[in-house]
Amino acid sequence: MEKDKNFCPICKCNFIDDQPIKLSVTNLYNCSHCGVVFAKPNFHNPNKDFFDSYQVDQWLKYYRMFRKKSHKQFVEKHKELFKNGISVLDIGCAAGWFLDEVKRKFSTAITVGMEPSPFMKDKINKSYLIYWFGAEQLGKVKGKFDMVTLWNVFEHFSDPHKIIRLVTTKIKRNGYLVLSVPNQKGLISRIAYFLARISGGILSMPLEELFQTDNAFGHLFHYDRQSLSKLLGKNDFKVLWCEGVDIVDVSNVRQRLKVTTNHGDEIKQQALATVVAQLTRIASVTDFQDEIVVATRKI
Ligand SMILES: [Zn+2]
Domain residues of the chain, as ranges? Predict the structure, then answer.
């Protein structure tokens, strides 16, 4: 019974981690077998919305530029994944920025989104078919797609295997699944874990931020390339490639800090922005970026 308490939700092994990192609303356990870090207990509040914790206008102002830029780069760099007439389902599409970039490059693409937050209802291109619910209700989505994407949402799900199984039913044979998640082995992440561990939990603010514990739907998992590949492989997806991407827009970190209100005064914000931007630049040239994008094919 004691061992079941520390059952890894990803690789299903019984690992031993008797020193979890304690955060304000949960504890972080590390699986010594697959390497994933997961939050337990689940601190999600299903009665709230993801955007309740943010100043939505600031969130949109920052992320519209950042995500559109990175999605544009992705579509241009990996155009071999696309073709005219491609059908794309973007789960957790927010304001539809990935679909915009696909449509801009491939005008005949079929663009479909899923988004549970009503905050985004008047932000999305009205010509797209949008299902206004979350991934747990994927069974209600009609048809199958050439590509399913989850940009910066997969780390929020409490049962990743279940979501992947649902996603599988919506992808055509040989279709693609592309997802991006925070990278546990990124430079900023490594520093955050190091600070929390050596201080006995006193310096846990960076980890609180990385897990978005002030959000009703913060992160429940922190993957790396190994644990993510293991999860996808177990669900019959062949990993084509995995690449690091920046966690913030280095030219606009001040704007990112304005999305949440807990970063102190102007001087503190400026100092923090400088540190985060420099670390992100170092991570980029050393291949220790704090997000990863993985492209897989359904086999
Ligand atoms: Zn594991």
Answer: 25-298
Q: Which two tokens stand for residue 121?
A: 């209802």
CA of 211 to the centre of ligand 1 (A): 18
Question: Per-residue pLDDT tens for 179-223?
Answer: 999 999 999 999 999 999 999 989 999 999 999 999 999 999 999
Checking if the pLDDT of 175 tops 70, the result is yes
215-249 exposure pattern, b = at least 16 Cβ within 10 A, e = fewer = bbbbbbbbbbbebbbbbbeebebebeebbbbbbbb
Cα-to-centroid distance, 33 and ligand 1 (Å): 5
87-91: strand order across its sheet: 129-131, 110-114, 87-91, 145-151, 171-182, 291-298, 237-245
Instruction: Return d(Cα 245, Cα 248) in angstroms, integer.
Output: 9
Distance from Cα 193 to the centre of ligand 1, integer Å: 18
Quickly count: other Cβ atoms within 10 Å of residue 107's Cβ. 9
Structure confidence at residue 150 (pLDDT): 98
Q: How far is the CA of 253 from the centre of ligand 1 (A)?
A: 33
CA angle, corner 232, sides to 230 and 234, nearest 5? 70
Average pLDDT (34-53) is 93
- Per DSSP, the three-state class of 48 is coil
Task: Of 183, 175, 156, 155, give the one whose Cα is nearest residue 243.
Answer: 183
The pLDDT confidence band at residue 265, using thresholds 50, 70 and 90, is confident
pTM of the full predicted structure?
0.94
Q: How far is the CA of 201 from the centre of ligand 1 (A)?
A: 23
What is the CATH code for 25-298?
3.40.50.150
As a whole number of angstroms, the distance between CA 70 and CA 168 comes to 25
pLDDT band at 2 (very low <50, low <70, confident <90, very high): very low
How would you list the strands of the sheet with 27-30, edge to edge?
21-22, 27-30, 37-40, 221-222
